[in-house]
């Protein structure tokens, strides 16, 4: 977990450019479909493993009071610089396994299979328990994870992302013994 997260130190400033194919608006719209189906109208939310805060800012634009949590100070720094809107999220640097919010929330979201980065099942259980404790009664936790089939299919895959200032090659490797998919990255950034 620590090693994987250290990679985000160098990736933070380029992350949004390298993931510009991610449709965050569609993700938040899907959250709203789920909330509508359940008859829930949250006023407060936490965006867990928020990265550069793309989901956090979209939730804030919907009028929610948002707390954004990530264990990477560099990612949080990028997130905090995205806007100076009046309804700005509160950014907190924490591991999910140690989650402690100033106030309970109505909604918790964890996008882009971020729970997959917690490799120890006991630590994942601990993180989910911490999220449960952070929710108001009747609150909702929406998250996604990769299936073992998808992770296995990533073995040997190479992805290339580039723009005028960044060039990144991602390589996936699936370990049959541990059932873990790892990424190797070569990242070149223009100063």
Overview of this protein structure:
There is one protein chain. By secondary structure, this protein is α/β, with parallel strands linked by helices. The protein has 7 helices and 8 strands; from the N terminus they run H-H-H-E-H-E-H-E-E-H-E-H-E-E-E. The strands form 2 sheets. It has a 5-stranded parallel beta sheet with strand order 3-2-1-4-5. Strands 6-7-8 form a 3-stranded antiparallel beta sheet. A hairpin with a 4-residue loop joins strand 7 (166-175) and strand 8. Helix 3 crosses helix 4 (54-61). The radius of gyration is 17 Å and the shape is globular. The model is unreliable at 1-5 (pLDDT under 50).
Break the fold down into its secondary structure elements and pairings.
Layout: H1 2-11, H2 15-18, H3 24-38, E1 44-48, H4 54-61, E2 65-70, H5 73-80, E3 90-93, E4 105-110, H6 121-134, E5 135-143, H7 148-153, E6 158-162, E7 166-175, E8 180-189
Parallel strand pairs: 1-2, 1-4, 2-3, 4-5
Antiparallel strand pairs: 6-7, 7-8
Helix pairs in contact: 3-4
Low-confidence runs (pLDDT<50, min 5 residues)? 1-5
What is the spatial order of strands in the main beta sheet?
3-2-1-4-5
Tell me the quaternary state. Answer: single chain
Structural class: alpha/beta
Biggest sheet architecture? 5 strands, parallel
Terminal CA distance: 28 Å
Q: Can you give the mean pLDDT? A: 92
Individual helix count = 7
Helix proportion of residues, in percent?
Answer: 25-40%
Give the overall form.
Answer: globular
Question: Count the strands?
Answer: 8
Order of helix and strand elements from N to C terminus: HHHEHEHEEHEHEEE
Q: Please indicate the percent range of residues in DSSP E strands (runs of 2 or more).
A: 25-35%
The value of Rg in angstroms is 17 Å
